[in-house]
Amino acid sequence: MSLEHLSVGEIAVILPGATTVFRRHKIDFCCKGDVLLAKEAESRGLDLSALEAELHALEAPGDHAPAETADLIAHIVERYHKVHRREFPEVIALARRVESVHRDRADCPHGLANLLSDMFDDLEDHQHKEEAVLFPAMLNGIGPALCGPISRMMQDHDDLGALLAFMAELTDDFVVPDGACATWRALYAGCSKLDMDLREHVHLENNILFQRFL
Ligand SMILES: [Fe+2]
Ligand SMILES: [Fe+2]
């Protein structure tokens, strides 16, 4: 998809992580979010192709989950673990900004940044256990001994589900209020993407990968 004819505000909403690129280049996607990317690049003397390449690099790799166990594990790590690691910090930063600037509004998602931060801490711990212990054991053919670790991972997934429900509640199911700024819209788009990715990630583990070892 060509991005040059979209506004920087639109790109901030449809492409999670774009706000990091814009911040790096001092592009104001919030107050001047209606400026087209091509126009913004021209006025700032930036190479449009290079800027577009940076933004396209944020797009997630394909969602097709391979059937073979080793390939499936590699897919889970590349498509989900690494993408969560890249996207959570930016969404947390957006939440802190929205909560700080709009704290007096009744519809401000108070507590969202701390919720996301706690969720990311728990997830990092969980993903590390999968990458360092569980997945290597699966690849080494240690089958029956994995029932205990797998059930602990599934309990973590249930706990994550409860936090996702709380995130949806705080954000009114990711529906931005009237008059919300581009940062607020980018935040809810990022939260919605995290929600979808985390649910798909858990589905691949609970319903496909883990079932092969139970
Ligand atoms: Fe995982
Ligand atoms: Fe997991």
Automatic annotation (TrEMBL):
Q: Name one GO cellular component term.
A: cytoplasm
Report the GO molecular function annotations. Answer: metal ion binding
Predominant location category: cytoplasm
Cellular compartment(s): Cytoplasm
- Keywords assigned by UniProt, alphabetized: Cytoplasm, Iron, Metal-binding
Q: Which residues form the Hemerythrin-like domain?
A: 73-212
Which protein are we looking at?
A: Regulator of cell morphogenesis and NO signaling
The species is Brevundimonas halotolerans
